[in-house]
Amino acid sequence: MQPFDRWLNNGDFNGILRPNLLPLYCDDDGSALDVQGRTVVFAEGMVLTVFDEDTGDDGRPDRLFASGTVVPSPWPVGRRWYLDIDGDGLRHESDLSPSISPPR
Asked: Is residue 90 left, alpha or beta, with left meaning phi > 0 and alpha meaning psi from -120 to 50?
């Protein structure tokens, strides 16, 4: 699966831990819905892209994105998954090719 095959609007971009560890919101069973309403059950090694609403310097919508690999929580508290962000880091939609933007 390529990173842009699954789009999820559930990354906690305000809760980034370390420069590359993004908390993912999920239900108690470790699942979440993608933007098309399909259930995604997180598993170690899964590659995906998450985004959140943001605005650019001009005040216009410019969603924030991160792609990477799903990893289990490195802490023994709760059942939580994280996205180990790939080398492209955090990006704004305006930085991406229109052909890889998620559906609206």
From this structure: beta
Over residues 86-97, mean pLDDT:
85
32-77 tens-digit pLDDT: 888 888 888 899 999 988 888 888 888 888 888 899 999 998 877 7
Q: Which amino acid is at 63?
A: R
CA atoms within 13 A on the CB side of 8: 30
CA distance 32 to 37: 9
> According to the model, what pLDDT value does residue 85 have?
94
Assign 13 to helix, strand or coil.
helix
Q: Which residues of 41-70 are buried (b: 16+ CB within 10 A; e: fewer)?
A: ebeeebbbbbbbeeeeeeeeeebbbbbbeb
Tokens matching residue 90: 């955090």
